[in-house]
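Instructor's aside before we start: the two examples that follow are unrelated to each other. I chose them only because their records fit on one page, so don't look for a connection. First example below.
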Amino acid sequence: MRARKTAIFAAIGCVAALGLTAPAAAADAAPTISAPASRVGYGSITITGTAPAGATVELFESAYVYNDFYASPDYANGGVITTKASTSGHYTLNRLLDSGFRFYVRANGVESKRISVAMGIIPTMTMSASNGSVDVKVAADPGQPGLAVHIQRSDSGTWTTVNTGHTGSAPDGVYTTTLSGQGSGTRIYRAVIDADKDNNLLTGQTTSISLNVGSGSGGGTGGGGTKPPATPPTAPAAPKAGDVVFSKIVYNSPGKDTGSNTSLNAEYVRLLNKSRTTINLKGWTVRDAAGHVYTVRTDQRISAGKYVYLHTGKGTNGRPDSRHRYWNSTGYVWSNGGDTAYLRTGAGKAIDSCKWTSDKGKTYC
């Protein structure tokens, strides 16, 4: 049986009601925050601002699409990202971006305004041709599924779209196709990837590739990518403990416990890939202390730095996008007053766990 908080106490305007004036020291100036409007491709940005001299400045973030802020995890050292304002009241922070993000800071309990940082897409296109047929591979940085890709050919100085598709999830951010009937002689191509407003991603395009598509064969790369290696790459190492972690668990869905599917799906765990490679979770399990077990029975790849959400209720895996999966439970799984979540590989190897002992509704592990 899920335990619920039964009362919330709030004191509103007590000082004003008594006709008293709060001490001036109780009102700290709001911190400020500034960052570049965007960056191009995966990498870091510098966040700066002002805060009361010597105050601890805490960074909060959210993927642009979700707008659900949480304390920014410090992946290098553990814990969350903080810094101290200098004696002149200035601070500097660095943060890696893999998509569009939102940020704010807090100092002495006072929050700054919210800001957003967009990310420009860097597409890379590799092409090879033989007898009028052209094989095309387009990769996106950041590696994001579902981005609209347009393969364009220059015809007498005018760019014509000859193929359109979307980046996929095997692995994320890659689109492949074959162009047939491209004739003979030299053709010029480029790839354009459309902006993604939901994730605050900006459009990008490759450099042009000149390719002999005739009776012979040829190849080329645009956008700074590299051709496939001549020998097969070394198989990636097996995932180790800490490569994928519980980065957030909402164990007490907001509002009244109605047991509706909407309420059940508001209870979820969020898994983060902290490694530098894509990891397939197929066969992995998520379980609680009471022995409820969810098994990932189909491919579920997480690119480096990306999230996957596992909702308690019913739904279709891959909707609204490839980051969402559903336990299909008809009852709540996680205990509000205290529970432990466990993540294991299909071979039973322990990868991560997250424990809580009080009902605060959610934890960032």
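Example two begins here.
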Amino acid sequence: MDNHDKKRTLIIEAATKRFAHFGIAKTTMTEIAKDLSLSKALLYYYFPDKISLYAAVFESIATKMFDKIEQGLIDINNCEEAVFYLIDMRLAFAMKYYNLFDQSLNTVTELADELSRVIQLVSELEIKTIASIFNKANKSGELVVDKPDYIAEIFLNAMIGMRFCVLKDKKAMFIPTKEEFDEISKMQKKLAVIFINGLRNQLSN
């Protein structure tokens, strides 16, 4: 890792601590620069605005989360248990970094390109992870899933749809409260049981 990459990583780590504790709205670029003893000019050289830095923080955390999930899934050989593990890890991530889901983002009418890119990346990582669970079940004979990537995308969209059933403030940008996150996860597990049983029934027919 060269000096440029090291500096960028240090900035992301410092910003993660700030955003996770105070949220994006109550964190300033000046505070992050001060934490690192950097000039604001140097900070803006790496990240032109707070949203681009927020996007980098979100990407960093999400990448680490999916790496950890991938490692945890290695020793899980049951499809249902694997999906439950994924859901539990997503909830743990949401609780640990809850302030990253800042309500101030509700006022952003159009997401910045960099943030949109990261959101798309997270979706692709989720689909890849779910597809890997289905592929493993295929190999073990637990399930027979045609087009695992496509089925994984359908399942992910169904899980995301759980938010609409739980959110009390439908005008919010789909950012649940901590209690709602927990309720959503419970519903997603029930959905997983129904979904996987449906795939098992295809196997028996």
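Residues 55-204 form a domain with the Tetracycline Repressor; domain 2 fold (CATH 1.10.357.10).
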